[in-house]
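Progress report, Aim 2. The chain analyzed during this reporting quarter is listed below.
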Amino acid sequence: LDVQLFERMVTHDAFEPADLLAMVAFTFDRLAALCSPARDGEVRRHRDALSAMATAGGATFAPFAVAYLKAFHETVDNIESDIEAFKQQVQQSQQQTPPQAATPATPPPASSSPSSSSSS
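Predicted structure tokens for the chain:
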């Protein structure tokens, strides 16, 4: 993500659709890698909507930036929610499963070696 390019785009209200498409692709591909597969459709819808907005004729940067930030934060919030829900599930399953007592290991049977008695 080129922060300086993003800053210039905001400052001068100038953008190229290709730059916005690259930013959307990078961001939402990364979010898709971080989220659960159940969120793939949501991430794809955000990406598609932002891509369409970036390439629409007459689009200005301000509405795009607002939509981009909303979609980004919604997705991150959902990822954080999913992580918290997973942690709670793990804790609940650990509380429901009684700890198993350690059983002493059974020693192997003693090997019987023939004892040789020597008598002199």
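Helices lie at 3-12, 17-34, 40-55, 61-96. Residues 61-96 form the longest helix (36 residues). These observations will guide the mutagenesis work planned for the next reporting period.
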